[in-house]
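Cont'd.
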Amino acid sequence: AQSVTQLGSHVSVSEGALVLLRCNYSSSVPPYLFWYVQYPNQGLQLLLKYTSAATLVKGINGFEAEFKKSETSFHLTKPSAHMSDAAEYFCAVFKKAAGNKLTFGGGTRVLVKP
Amino acid sequence: KAGVTQTPRYLIKTRGQQVTLSCSPISGHRSVSWYQQTPGQGLQFLFEYFSETQRNKGNFPGRFSGRQFSNSRSEMNVSTLELGDSALYLCASSLSTGQETQYFGPGTRLLVL
């Protein structure tokens, strides 16, 4: 069975500092990988996705993620945090052979300090 | 293009009652998936519907059911509600079954008292 591990359930960063959210997946074959963001009292918004076209994926709001097969990782970064980045972030994998469903990590809540 | 819509947004029920949640996918999307989000279990897949047929099902009891209509709109039903069913229920749509990119609605927050 697939699993997704997000290291750190809470991350605190200062405004303007680097945001780094870690995600590792377990899969013998690289799956499709996603990062979603959830703002309070809202649904999930797609930030970016990896579909094997390029290992460095750029998303919305200045976020990007790098797929590293050797490390089975898909970490999310943003060079300079903004107050509006305060939210919960979810890493997810999708494999057709695993029931056409997204399997999510536990989420990382980001707090941005002024 | 309008996004995924879910109604109602908030719902309060008591134990033993049943509830029906509705989801309208993005225009042109034919696959609808449902997920349950709770603080303890996180985000878990409930089921997927495509062409009015349930294609995949997660590990939930039979009290959780759903259906899809010919216009791709979907409903999910939970019967004999339990306190543990309190959650945010998210609907996601994609172009077709097996399409990896899913777009989520705002969710329906269900509170069972």
